[in-house]
C-alpha cells in the first residue's frame, strides 16, 4: 500500500511538472499587460496610493475567486472521463439530461464503459422538474447548442488574440531601453515571431515540448523574485491591500472610471479557461498542486511587486513590468518573457485545434483536414485551414490595433464572455448531472455569474475600442457552424425518410438481381439502420456490385474517447447468403481517426469475429431483416479467428491461397493498371501487403468456413469505398430564408470545404462516388 501511494505521488508530481508547459503559459504572462490596461483610460488621472492599492486588491480577489476557487477548486471536478472544457460540460448534459441533437443515437451507445460515470450515474434517481421541462422542449436544446457554439467561437477568438497580445507585450519591453524605437519596429518583430510560430505548427511540438515546462517554471520564479524585490525596495506596506476594504475605497474614489477600468483588471484571469479545457492531458490533483504550489503565489507576488513599484513611480505605468526590473536583469528577463509568450501562444493554438475538431465531430463545423502523427502526443492534432486562418487574424489585429490597449479590450471581452458561458453550463451540470438542488445551482450562478457580469459590463463599454472584433467574429463563426449543422441535419433526415425497405431487398434474392464481382464494397452512410438510397441508386444505374457488402456508419458518441475494443458494432443485413453486413464505427468527440489501412484490417477482423459468434449462438439467426449488432472486440477470442501476415516483397505471397485468388479475380488489364499505380504511389502499394488466412481449425458448421473464406478472398481482391456525392437543393415552395441558407450559405460552405474522401484519407483508385439529389 505504501509503495502504491509513493508511486501515485510520483505520477502526480511528474504530471504537475509537465502541466507548466501547457496549462499556465497564458495565465503567467498576464503581468506584462494587466496594470497597463487597467490604467489606460481616465483612471490614470487618479495617482494616489489608495487607488494603486485598490487596483491590486481588485486583481488579487478577482484572481483568487475566479481562478482559484471557481476553476481550480470547483470546476476541475466537472470532468467528463477526465476531460474538461465547454464540450465536456455539454457532453455531460447530453448524456445525463438528454440534450443531445446528434441524430443517430442508439441504446447500445449507453452501454459504453465511458458513457456512465459512477459518481454521476442517474439511472436510479428521479429527474428534477427543471430537467424534465428542458428535455421536453426542443427549442431549449437548440438554445443550449447555440450557447455552446457561441462559447466555442469565443475560444477560437482567444486562439488568435492570445498570440498577438502575448508576443507584442513581450516585445514592447524594448521601448524601455530605446525611447526612440518606432512603433513599426515592434510590430514587425512581433509579426516575424508570429509567422514563425504558425509556420512550424505542422511539425508538431514533440521535439521542443520538453523545454516548455522549464521555461514556464523559470519564468514564474523569476517574476516572483522581481515582485518580492519591488515589495522590499519600494513599498512593504502593499500587503495591506490584500484586504477587500481597499476595493471599497477604490470605487469610492474613482466611481465610474473605476468601473470602466475593470476591463483591464479581468486580464489577470486570461488563460484560466485553459486549466479546465486541457484537463484531459493531466489530472485534477496535478493541476491543483502546480497552481497552488507555484503559479498562484508567484503571480500574487508579482502583482504585489508591480503595485508597490507603481505607488512610488506612477509615471511608468505604461511599461510598469519592464520598468520595475533591476537593470542587470533586464535583457535576460526580456528574452525569457518572449519565450514564455511563445509557449503561451503554442498552448492556446493547440487548444483551438482541439475545440474545432470537437465541433466538427458533432456535425457543427465544415469538413477540415485533421492531421495526427503517431509520434505526437495523444490528442495533439494539426488543422491546416484553421492554422492559416488564425495566422491571418493574428497578424490583422497585430497590425490593425496600433494601440495595444485596444487589443487588450478585445482579448478581455472574449475571455470574460467565454468564462460566463462556462459558468452557465456548470450551473446546469450541478443540477442535472451532479443531482444537487436547484438552489445550489442558482447560488453558483448568482455568486460567480454576477461577478463576471460586472466585469463583462465594463468590457461592453469598450466594444467600440476593440471589443467589437471578437464579438463580430464570434457571430460570424457561430452562423457558419449553425448553418452547417442545419444543412447536415436536414440531409440526414432526408436520408432517413428515403431509406429503402428491407422487404424490397429480400425480394431480390442472394444475388440482389445483379452481377456480384470479387471484392468488398464499403458503403458509407449516416444511417444506423436500413439501406440508404445511395445503394439502390448505384444498382439502378450499374447493375453490378461486390460479393461482400458492408454498410459503414461513422458516428460520434457524446463521450471524449471510445475504447478501441468497444468501437465497432457489427451486424448482418438479410440472410447469410446475401453477404451483407453493417458496421457502426463509434468515435468520441476527441478521438482521432486512424488511417485507412488499420480501418480495413480492423473491419475484416471484426466481421470474421461476428460470423463466428453468430455461429456459436451469440448473434442473429439466418433470415433476419436487419440483425442485432454485436460489440465483437469484447470477445476473448478476438484476433484469433484469422491470421494476419505481411509478405516480404510485392511478388511473394503468404502460404495461403490468397495470391492465387487475387490474380484469378482480375483481368490482365486491371492487374497491369494496379501494378502501374503501385509504382507511382508507394503508399498504395503498402496498403496491399497485409494478407489474411484462416486458422487451421475444425469448424462445426461448414457454412462458417465458406463465409470466412469468401470474406478473406474479397479482402485480397480489393476494397472499394462508395460515397454519396450529394447536390442539396431547397424545395420550390420553401420559405425565402430556408432557400437562402441552403442555396447560398450551405452550398458555399460545401464547395469550399474538404471533400469526404479527403477527410477519410481514401485513395482515388478505391473511391466510387454516387451522385444524389436532395430536395430539402
TrEMBL record:
It comes from the Eukaryota. Residues 518-775 form the K+ potassium transporter C-terminal domain. Residues 647-659 have a biased composition (Low complexity). Residues 15-506 form the K+ potassium transporter integral membrane domain. It is found in: Cell membrane; Membrane. It is a multi-pass membrane protein. Its main location: membrane. One of its GO terms (cellular component) is membrane. Keywords: Ion transport, Membrane, Potassium, Potassium transport, Transmembrane, Transmembrane helix, Transport. InterPro entries: K+_transporter (IPR003855), K_trans_C (IPR053952), K_trans_N (IPR053951). Belongs to the HAK/KUP transporter (TC 2.A.72.3) family. Potassium transporter. This is Potassium transporter.
Amino acid at each position: 500500500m505504501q509503495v502504491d501511494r509513493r508511486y501515485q505521488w510520483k505520477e502526480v508530481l511528474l504530471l504537475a511538472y509537465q502541466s507548466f508547459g501547457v496549462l499556465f503559459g497564458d495565465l503567467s504572462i498576464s503581468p506584462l499587460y494587466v496594470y497597463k490596461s487597467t490604467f489606460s483610460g481616465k483612471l490614470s488621472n487618479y495617482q494616489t496610493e489608495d487607488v494603486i492599492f485598490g487596483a491590486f486588491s481588485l486583481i488579487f480577489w478577482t484572481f483568487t475567486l475566479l481562478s482559484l476557487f471557481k476553476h481550480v477548486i470547483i470546476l476541475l471536478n466537472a470532468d467528463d472521463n477526465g476531460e474538461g472544457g465547454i464540450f465536456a460540460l455539454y457532453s455531460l448534459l447530453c448524456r445525463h439530461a438528454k440534450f443531445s441533437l446528434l441524430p443517430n443515437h442508439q441504446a447500445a451507445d449507453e452501454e459504453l464503459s465511458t458513457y456512465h460515470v459512477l459518481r454521476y450515474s442517474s439511472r436510479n434517481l428521479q429527474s428534477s422538474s427543471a430537467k424534465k421541462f428542458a428535455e421536453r422542449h426542443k427549442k431549449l436544446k437548440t438554445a443550449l447548442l447555440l450557447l455552446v457554439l457561441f462559447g466555442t467561437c469565443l475560444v477560437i477568438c482567444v486562439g488568435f488574440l492570445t498570440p498577438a497580445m502575448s508576443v507584442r507585450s513581450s516585445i514592447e519591453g524594448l521601448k524601455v531601453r530605446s525611447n526612440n524605437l518606432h512603433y513599426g519596429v515592434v510590430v514587425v518583430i512581433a509579426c516575424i515571431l508570429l509567422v514563425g510560430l504558425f509556420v512550424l505548427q505542422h511539425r508538431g511540438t514533440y521535439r521542443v515540448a520538453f523545454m516548455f515546462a522549464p521555461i514556464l517554471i523559470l519564468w514564474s520564479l523569476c517574476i516572483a523574485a522581481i515582485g518580492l524585490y519591488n515589495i522590499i525596495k519600494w513599498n512593504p506596506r502593499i500587503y495591506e491591500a490584500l484586504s477587500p476594504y481597499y476595493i471599497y475605497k477604490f470605487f469610492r474614489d474613482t466611481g465610474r472610471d473605476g468601473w470602466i477600468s475593470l476591463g483591464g483588471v479581468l486580464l489577470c484571469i486570461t488563460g484560466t479557461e485553459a486549466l479546465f479545457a486541457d484537463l484531459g492531458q493531466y489530472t485534477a490533483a496535478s493541476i491543483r498542486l502546480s497552481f497552488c504550489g507555484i503559479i498562484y503565489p508567484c503571480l500574487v507576488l508579482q502583482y504585489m511587486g508591480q503595485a508597490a513599484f507603481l505607488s512610488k513611480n506612477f509615471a511608468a505605468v505604461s511599461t510598469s513590468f519592464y520598468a520595475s526590473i533591476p537593470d542587470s536583469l533586464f535583457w535576460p528577463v526580456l528574452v525569457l518573457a518572449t519565450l514564455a509568450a511563445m509557449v503561451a501562444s503554442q498552448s492556446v493554438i493547440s487548444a483551438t485545434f482541439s475545440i474545432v475538431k470537437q465541433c466538427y465531430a458533432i456535425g457543427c463545423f465544415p469538413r477540415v483536414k485533421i492531421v495526427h502523427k503517431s509520434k505526437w502526443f495523444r490528442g495533439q492534432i494539426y488543422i491546416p485551414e484553421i492554422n492559416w486562418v488564425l495566422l491571418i487574424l493574428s497578424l490583422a489585429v497585430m497590425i490593425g490595433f496600433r494601440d495595444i490597449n485596444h487589443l487588450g479590450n478585445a482579448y478581455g471581452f472574449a475571455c470574460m464572455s467565454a468564462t460566463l458561458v462556462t459558468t452557465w453550463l456548470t450551473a446546469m451540470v450541478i443540477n442535472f448531472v451532479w443531482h444537487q438542488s436547484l438552489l445550489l445551482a442558482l447560488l453558483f450562478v448568482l455568486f460567480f455569474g454576477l461577478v463576471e457580469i460586472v466585469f463583462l459590463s465594463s468590457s461592453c463599454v469598450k466594444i467600440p475600442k476593440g471589443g467589437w472584433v471578437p464579438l463580430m467574429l464570434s457571430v460570424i463563426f457561430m452562423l457558419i457552424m449553425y448553418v452547417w449543422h442545419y444543412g447536415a441535419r436536414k440531409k440526414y433526415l432526408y436520408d432517413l425518410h428515403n431509406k429503402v425497405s428491407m422487404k424490397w431487398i429480400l425480394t431480390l434474392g442472394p444475388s440482389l438481381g445483379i452481377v456480384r464481382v470479387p471484392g468488398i464494397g464499403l458503403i458509407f452512410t449516416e444511417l444506423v439502420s436500413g439501406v440508404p438510397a445511395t445503394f439502390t441508386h448505384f444498382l439502378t444505374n450499374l447493375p453490378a456490385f461486390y460479393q461482400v457488402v458492408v454498410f459503414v456508419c461513422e458516428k460520434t458518441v457524446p463521450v471524449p474517447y471510445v475504447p478501441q475494443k468497444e468501437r465497432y458494432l457489427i451486424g448482418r443485413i438479410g440472410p447469410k447468403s446475401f453477404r451483407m453486413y453493417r458496421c457502426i464505427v463509434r468515435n468520441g468527440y476527441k478521438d482521432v481517426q486512424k488511417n485507412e489501412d488499420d480501418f480495413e484490417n480492423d473491419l475484416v477482423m471484426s466481421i470474421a469475429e461476428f460470423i463466428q459468434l453468430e455461429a456459436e449462438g451469440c448473434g442473429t439467426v439466418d433470415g433476419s431483416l436487419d440483425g442485432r449488432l454485436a460489440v465483437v472486440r469484447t470477445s476473448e477470442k478476438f484476433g484469433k479467428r484469422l491470421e494476419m501476415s505481411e509478405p516480404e516483397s510485392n511478388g511473394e505471397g503468404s502460404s495461403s491461397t490468397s495470391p492465387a485468388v487475387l490474380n484469378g479475380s482480375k483481368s490482365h488489364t486491371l492487374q497491369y493498371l494496379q501494378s502501374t499505380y503501385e509504382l507511382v504511389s508507394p503508399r498504395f502499394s503498402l496498403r496491399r501487403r497485409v494478407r489474411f488466412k484462416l486458422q487451421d481449425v475444425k469448424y462445426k458448421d461448414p457454412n462458417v468456413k465458406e463465409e470466412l473464406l469468401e470474406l478473406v478472398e474479397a479482402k485480397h481482391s480489393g476494397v472499394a469505398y462508395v460515397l454519396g456525392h450529394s447536390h442539396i437543393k431547397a424545395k420550390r415552395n420553401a420559405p425565402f430564408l430556408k432557400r437562402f441558407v441552403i442555396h447560398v450559405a450551405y452550398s458555399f460552405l460545401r464547395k469550399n470545404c474538404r471533400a469526404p474522401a479527403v477527410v477519410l484519407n481514401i485513395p482515388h483508385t478505391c473511391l466510387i462516388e454516387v451522385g444524389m439529389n436532395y430536395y430539402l
